[in-house]
Amino acid sequence: MSKAIVIGAGIAGIASAIRLVIKGYQVEVFEAGSVAGGKLSELNLGDFRFDTGPSLFTMPQYVDELFTLAGKNSVDYFQYEKLETVCNYFYEDGTRISAFADRTKFSEEIAEKTKDSAESVIKFLEKSKDIYEITNAVFLQRSLHKFSTYFNWTTFKSLLRFPQIDAFRSMNQAIEANFKDSKTIRFFNRYATYNGSNPYKAPATLNVIPHFEQYFGAYFPVGGMYSIASSLVKLAIDLGVKFNFNSYVDEIELNNNQVSGVKVNGLSYPADLVISNMDIWYTYQKLLKGFEVPERIKQQERSSSALIFYWGINRSFPELELHNIFFTEDYKEEFKQIWDDKIIYNDPTVYVNISSKNKVEDSPVGSENWFTMINVPADTGQDWDALIIEARKNIIEKLSKILGLDVSKLIVCEAILDPRSIDSKTFSYQGSLYGSSSNSQFSAFLRHANFSSKIENLFFVGGSVHPGGGIPLALLSAKIVEGLIK
């Protein structure tokens, strides 16, 4: 039986292990941390539980697919419920918009609360659907770095429709061409943050993202977001995958530019192939002795990072739901300061996720667990201690103003995650959440391939390589690699 080793038990690493064991490989996973999940982890502070990383669950079919491939009933491992309201949006003037899952209801909500029409929303969502249908089979489901991808009828049809993916203007330009109200424009520009990019620079192709949320829906895993990782680990173990935790891989071992195994704590573990779920930057820097980080990767702009406050709040807010956004008034200035000035804007857009709205045991009765996040630049040596103090003050002031009471007096416990700790805990270079940004027209083609062109039987998965970051795309990277393995 052929042996495969997976480095890192992030969501893409777990999915890769499942796919390979189903293909007949003997699979062993080495994870530097004490638990699986990577960024998809959890935290307990007294009586409060928090999902620490990704908090929005879309495209559940890519999780279900793994159970189907294994011949298992997914509900025996993992269950989720569809959200009727995807997110609540709060504006400084008191306007509150609910993004309903029902498209008609959502478009009517926009028409009622802004100067834009329901028809303009439907038109925009149809365009989003078109971009998805053009790009899905080619750009999301296959390697962009294999000639075979481009020599088939499906790709040919997509290439004929290439102008329709709107690659030559920015997200914001396309959005402003369709809407006139600042509230609606900010609403749709926000989707750039789903892959750590800037809507004023990223191509309008990324306006595909609303389709994932509005068409396929948003969901909440019954056990919380961390249950995605824990349920897949259980599946993998049931299938025979071996997990080694607290096992930092020192080196990917080679023999004549072909993978021969890995070295862990001075011991060699032979393998016929290796899949790295570590950030591609660190894969080269730490694991591939004698190989430099490719110049293309060095020169690519990193994605944005995040500053997260995990707050136990000793009060409940009926006006808040699972997902909540509190908008800045000047979105363009916020992105300018993140991307150009590399600092945190003094009026940041704030995201508050409250899993206890759906999983009540995550906080004591009458309390809520607030995952409070703002987008920030990647770590390039800023004075984060000073930035965090100022950001915390500004976030509390903003939330207190919009909610009408002093939030600072409600915080009973706190933990903080910033770009430095994201880097150190998850080996995400500079704390960037999605590897490289998507702030250029051809950024999709510039992400690192899912395989090495110089080392035989070495593959790469996760958010830092093709097709990108976020749970659905990380899972697709594992699917792409499975297709590459002969």
- SS field, number of helical segments: 16
CATH topology of the domain at 3-39 and 224-299 and 441-484: FAD/NAD(P)-binding domain
Share in helix: 25-40%
- What is the CATH C level class of the domain at 3-39 and 224-299 and 441-484, in words? Alpha Beta
Main beta sheet strand tally, sense and closure:
7 strands, mixed
Query: Unreliable segments (pLDDT under 50, ≥5 consecutive)?
Result: none
- CATH homologous superfamily caption of the domain at 3-39 and 224-299 and 441-484: FAD/NAD(P)-binding domain
- Which structural class do you get from the secondary structure elements? alpha/beta
Q: Care to count the β-strands?
A: 20
Strand order of the largest sheet: 8-7-16-17-18-15-19
The CATH architecture designation of the domain at 3-39 and 224-299 and 441-484 is 3-Layer(bba) Sandwich
